[in-house]
């Protein structure tokens, strides 16, 4: 009997691929293991075994596998099921899900390795310079990758050189697969056993009396190991004795110390815990009890609790309870960079049971977290992290908390799978029969609608913890202020007054300006020209700190221009304003204040975000200027004033969710004010003080906002009443993009009629020299989602067979944000 394995390969292919297995292989291999297989010409890929069976494929001859990579499954059956759901729901391939789900280090790839032939007999003097360099290098290191040879010869095209060397039978090529993950090794030291006896020790110290540094190391060693049998790191010994590692090395050379290496974990927490008991106030207790009873009925639960109402404490207690049952808990957050504070709160409570997982982590760190969760070790019990955490190999998940559930960064935008982690988490929880809680001070319309229609259970928490009042909101009409000349740059008189007062009282201030997309652009006062990105349809924005004009889409940049590039006039000025400009104006207004800025530009490095937050927490900063990054879940004690610099550029965003988002954003920023006893203050500067959303934000009227927005969504056929699928056609050729989009729209209209919108160019229709055009499909509630998707799939398949459109790509986004 022949055996076959269906594999998921990390490629955007519709199908699984079948390989043949020998009897012995079939005996050993099980679902969820990785196999290395050949696919296409000479390429080796890592595939995951999705199924083992005995039916040979119909249309091709199954190839044998190349290599078995695991001894035990790396992917659980739960995961395979979940991947399959994601791929069906979000219309992408299982291979794409696999790429997103597994840390890159698990996906081995093939690469050519160049080796010297043993006993080659080509006369070395006949090699040219390049060849000689390569041969010489290969005599020192047994093998080299192509890339290393490129570096050696300092150019890209090295294949001709290698080919000639192969022909001359000097070198050979090997296809080698290598595992990318390397366990971290730590160097330890110990005294050689012959010196452990008391007498030997004294002799040693005497011998070293004219080598004071070495003697110092030895003494430090004795004091550090006197009461502890723990292995001693070489680094610790050097640090404590103040010696360099060279001194230690010389002791190793003399045979006094020996070095040894051990693997350690990169991840994990090393501090102490302060597991202080949480005592709920009566509102928290009520909410907690309600949540528990809904969980018992297996309901998805939405917690609508105002900012600073103590939701986090409720999450902590829920997690504690689920750990007691021996199950795992997952705490999902919108963007992990924004959570240093929260991670610390959880680690203070749960210690090293908390594992953090996110994309800023290195390859190796991610592998370690994955393995901990897979083995359900003590360490893998609580996972906290951003959206990709839903792909971890949970064994028995008991609880998912989705914090700030309204956040749009839960939706992956690029590449596929374009999943929404909150919605996928609901499915994941159902798969494990785990409890799931969505929490927010400003729930998304979708989730609130679900609660409104009894699909989710709703729990409300309307009071701030400690009876702190909601901040006092004041709307400042900057249109009038401008007319009356009561503005200094972008600051109204009111805002300046309030900042002054806060500084006098030694309180802190947060100023919010919408994301850097609104940074200043350069405009010629004579002809109106502003410098454009050559690759994208956007204006370049001005960055004062390096005096550059930059494109936010592709990174293209040029030096700041002194003259208009179109007409040569030197009357040019910057229009619009971003965080950087707020900061500059602020420094002029308050020269003595300590000011910091937090946006994408200032938080690039791994720890830069933490540094800014920590400085603010430690009161080393008086005023923090920032973008959306400031809105999320931060708990500062001494902030009593929050200023929203300009509410209008939020409201005027061309998007059906713009109003909902503006409400959420402003409510969240406002929530950073006055979290302790004193009542906080929020100033909203706007040109439209009577805008409904501004009114609703200033009165904190969530339910009115919800009702009015819902009414609009109904009228204009948007979620939650209609579901959306957006197709984006993309290519380097403008007219092909147009033709392809028109073809698709026509095909779709035949089936979905008036529920097809577009094709239409997005606001930025060219990025990195590729043209984009969108088609939107609206799906009424009573129309079957499954059938609709099958139909879209069919139309896309016939689209794929049209030769003229071969260079055109179609991106599918289900539930676009
Ligand atoms: P939210 O997550 O709803 O914005 P938090 O959980 O951050 O609110 O709570 C706000 C503040 O109140 C935090 O500083 C938190 O430590 C404190 N707090 C909340 N509940 C309790 C409690 N039961 N006991 C002590 N402090 C609490
Ligand atoms: Zn000009
Ligand atoms: Zn660009």
UniProtKB/TrEMBL annotation:
<dbReference type="GO" id="GO:0006310">
    <property type="term" value="P:DNA recombination"/>
</dbReference>
<dbReference type="InterPro" id="IPR001650">
    <property type="entry name" value="Helicase_C-like"/>
</dbReference>
<dbReference type="Pfam" id="PF18319">
    <property type="entry name" value="Zn_ribbon_PriA"/>
</dbReference>
<feature type="binding site">
    <location>
        <position position="524"/>
    </location>
    <ligand>
        <name>Zn(2+) 1</name>
    </ligand>
</feature>
<dbReference type="InterPro" id="IPR027417">
    <property type="entry name" value="P-loop_NTPase"/>
</dbReference>
<dbReference type="GO" id="GO:0016887">
    <property type="term" value="F:ATP hydrolysis activity"/>
</dbReference>
<dbReference type="InterPro" id="IPR011545">
    <property type="entry name" value="DEAD/DEAH_box_helicase_dom"/>
</dbReference>
<dbReference type="GO" id="GO:0005524">
    <property type="term" value="F:ATP binding"/>
</dbReference>
<feature type="binding site">
    <location>
        <position position="551"/>
    </location>
    <ligand>
        <name>Zn(2+) 2</name>
    </ligand>
</feature>
<keyword id="KW-0547">Nucleotide-binding</keyword>
<feature type="binding site">
    <location>
        <position position="567"/>
    </location>
    <ligand>
        <name>Zn(2+) 1</name>
    </ligand>
</feature>
<keyword id="KW-0378">Hydrolase</keyword>
<comment type="similarity">
    <text>Belongs to the helicase family. PriA subfamily.</text>
</comment>
<dbReference type="GO" id="GO:0006269">
    <property type="term" value="P:DNA replication, synthesis of primer"/>
</dbReference>
<feature type="binding site">
    <location>
        <position position="536"/>
    </location>
    <ligand>
        <name>Zn(2+) 2</name>
    </ligand>
</feature>
<keyword id="KW-0479">Metal-binding</keyword>
<feature type="binding site">
    <location>
        <position position="564"/>
    </location>
    <ligand>
        <name>Zn(2+) 1</name>
    </ligand>
</feature>
<dbReference type="InterPro" id="IPR042115">
    <property type="entry name" value="PriA_3primeBD_sf"/>
</dbReference>
<dbReference type="InterPro" id="IPR005259">
    <property type="entry name" value="PriA"/>
</dbReference>
<keyword id="KW-0413">Isomerase</keyword>
<dbReference type="GO" id="GO:0003677">
    <property type="term" value="F:DNA binding"/>
</dbReference>
<dbReference type="InterPro" id="IPR040498">
    <property type="entry name" value="PriA_CRR"/>
</dbReference>
<keyword id="KW-0347">Helicase</keyword>
<keyword id="KW-0862">Zinc</keyword>
<comment type="function">
    <text>Initiates the restart of stalled replication forks, which reloads the replicative helicase on sites other than the origin of replication. Recognizes and binds to abandoned replication forks and remodels them to uncover a helicase loading site. Promotes assembly of the primosome at these replication forks.</text>
</comment>
<keyword id="KW-0639">Primosome</keyword>
<dbReference type="InterPro" id="IPR014001">
    <property type="entry name" value="Helicase_ATP-bd"/>
</dbReference>
<feature type="binding site">
    <location>
        <position position="554"/>
    </location>
    <ligand>
        <name>Zn(2+) 2</name>
    </ligand>
</feature>
<dbReference type="GO" id="GO:0043138">
    <property type="term" value="F:3'-5' DNA helicase activity"/>
</dbReference>
<dbReference type="GO" id="GO:0006270">
    <property type="term" value="P:DNA replication initiation"/>
</dbReference>
<feature type="binding site">
    <location>
        <position position="527"/>
    </location>
    <ligand>
        <name>Zn(2+) 1</name>
    </ligand>
</feature>
<dbReference type="GO" id="GO:1990077">
    <property type="term" value="C:primosome complex"/>
</dbReference>
<feature type="binding site">
    <location>
        <position position="533"/>
    </location>
    <ligand>
        <name>Zn(2+) 2</name>
    </ligand>
</feature>
<keyword id="KW-0067">ATP-binding</keyword>
<dbReference type="Pfam" id="PF18074">
    <property type="entry name" value="PriA_C"/>
</dbReference>
<keyword id="KW-0238">DNA-binding</keyword>
<dbReference type="Pfam" id="PF17764">
    <property type="entry name" value="PriA_3primeBD"/>
</dbReference>
<dbReference type="GO" id="GO:0008270">
    <property type="term" value="F:zinc ion binding"/>
</dbReference>
<protein>
    <recommendedName>
        <fullName>Replication restart protein PriA</fullName>
        <ecNumber>5.6.2.4</ecNumber>
    </recommendedName>
</protein>
<comment type="subunit">
    <text>Component of the replication restart primosome.</text>
</comment>
<dbReference type="GO" id="GO:0006302">
    <property type="term" value="P:double-strand break repair"/>
</dbReference>
<dbReference type="InterPro" id="IPR041236">
    <property type="entry name" value="PriA_C"/>
</dbReference>
């Amino acid at each position: 009997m022949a055996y076959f394995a269906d594999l998921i390969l990390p490629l955007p292919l519709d199908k699984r691929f079948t390989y043949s297995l020998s009897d012995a292989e079939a005996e050993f291999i099980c679902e969820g293991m990785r196999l290395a297989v050949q696919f296409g010409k000479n390429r080796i890929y890592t595939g995951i075994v999705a199924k083992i069976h005995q039916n040979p494929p119909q249309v091709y001859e199954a190839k044998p596998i190349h290599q078995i990579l695991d001894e035990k499954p790396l992917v659980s059956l739960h995961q395979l099921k979940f991947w399959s759901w994601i791929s069906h729901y979000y219309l992408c391939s299982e291979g794409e899900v696999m790429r997103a789900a597994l840390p890159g280090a698990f996906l081995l790839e093939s690469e050519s390795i160049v080796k010297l032939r043993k006993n080659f007999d080509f006369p070395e003097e006949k090699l040219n310079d390049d060849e000689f360099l390569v041969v010489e290098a290969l005599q020192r290191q047994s093998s080299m990758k192509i890339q290393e040879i490129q570096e050696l010869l300092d150019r890209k095209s090295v294949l001709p050189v290698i080919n000639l060397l192969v022909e001359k039978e000097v070198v050979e090529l090997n296809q080698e697969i290598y595992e990318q993950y390397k366990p971290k090794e730590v160097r330890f030291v110990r005294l050689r056993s012959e010196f452990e006896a008391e007498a030997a020790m004294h002799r040693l110290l005497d011998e070293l009396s004219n080598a004071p540094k070495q003697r110092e190391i030895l003494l430090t060693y004795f004091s550090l190991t006197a009461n502890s049998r723990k292995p001693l790191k070489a680094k610790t010994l050097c640090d404590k004795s103040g010696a360099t590692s060279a001194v230690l090395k010389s002791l190793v050379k003399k045979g006094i110390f020996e070095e040894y290496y051990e693997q350690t974990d990169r991840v994990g927490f090393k501090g102490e815990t302060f597991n202080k008991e949480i005592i709920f106030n009566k509102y928290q207790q009520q909410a907690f009890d309600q949540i528990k009873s809904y969980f018992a009925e297996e309901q998805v639960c939405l917690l609508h609790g105002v900012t600073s109402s103590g939701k986090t404490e409720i999450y902590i207690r829920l997690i504690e309870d689920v750990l007691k049952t021996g199950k795992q808990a997952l705490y999902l957050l919108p963007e992990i960079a924004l959570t240093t504070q929260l991670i610390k709160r959880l680690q203070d409570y749960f210690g090293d049971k908390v594992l953090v997982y996110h994309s800023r982590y290195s390859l190796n760190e991610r592998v370690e977290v994955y393995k901990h969760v897979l083995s359900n070790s003590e360490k893998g019990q609580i996972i906290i992290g951003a959206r990709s955490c839903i792909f971890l190999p949970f064994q028995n998940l008991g609880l998912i908390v989705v914090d700030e559930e309204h956040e749009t960064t839960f939706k992956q935008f690029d590449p596929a799978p374009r999943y929404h982690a909150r919605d996928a988490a609901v499915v994941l929880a159902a798969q494990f029969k785990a409890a799931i809680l969505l929490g927010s001070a400003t729930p998304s319309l979708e989730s609130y609608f679900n609660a409104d229609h009894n699909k989710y259970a709703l729990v409300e928490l309307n009071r701030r913890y400690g009876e702190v009042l909601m901040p006092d909101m004041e709307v400042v009409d900057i249109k009038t202020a401008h007319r009356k000349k009561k503005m200094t740059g972008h600051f109204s008189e009111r805002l300046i007054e309030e900042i002054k007062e806060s500084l006098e009282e030694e309180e802190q201030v947060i100023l919010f300006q919408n994301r850097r997309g609104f940074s200043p652009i350069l405009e010629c006062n004579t002809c109106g020209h502003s410098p454009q990105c050559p690759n994208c349809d956007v204006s370049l924005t001005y960055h004062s700190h390096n005096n550059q004009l930059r494109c936010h889409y592709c990174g293209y940049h040029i030096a700041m221009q002194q003259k208009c590039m179109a007409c040569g006039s030197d009357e040019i000025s910057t229009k619009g304003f971003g965080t950087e400009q707020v900061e500059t104006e602020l420094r002029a207004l308050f020269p003595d204040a300590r000011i910091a800025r937090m946006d994408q530009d200032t938080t690039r490095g791994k720890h830069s975000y933490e540094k800014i937050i920590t400085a603010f927490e430690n009161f080393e900063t008086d005023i923090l200027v920032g973008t959306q990054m400031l809105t999320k879940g931060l708990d500062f004690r001494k902030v009593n004033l929050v200023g929203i610099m300009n509410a209008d550029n939020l409201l005027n965003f061309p998007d059906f969710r713009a109003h909902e988002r503006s409400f959420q954003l402003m409510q969240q920023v406002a929530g950073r004010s006055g979290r302790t006893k004193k009542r906080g203050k929020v100033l909203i500067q706007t040109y439209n003080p009577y805008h409904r959303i501004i009114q609703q934000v200033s009165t904190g009227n969530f339910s009115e906002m919800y009702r009015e927005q819902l009414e609009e969504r109904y009228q204009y056929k948007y979620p939650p009443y209609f579901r959306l699928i957006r197709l984006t056609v993309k290519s380097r050729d403008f007219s092909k993009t147009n033709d392809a989009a028109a073809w698709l729209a026509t095909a779709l209209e035949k089936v979905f009629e008036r529920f097809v919108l577009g094709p239409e160019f997005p606001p930025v229709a060219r990025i990195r020299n590729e043209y984009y055009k969108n088609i939107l499909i609206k799906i009424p509630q009573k129309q079957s989602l499954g059938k609709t998707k099958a139909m879209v799939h069919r139309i896309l398949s016939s689209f794929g067979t049209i030769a003229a459109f071969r260079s055109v790509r179609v991106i599918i986004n289900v539930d676009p944000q």
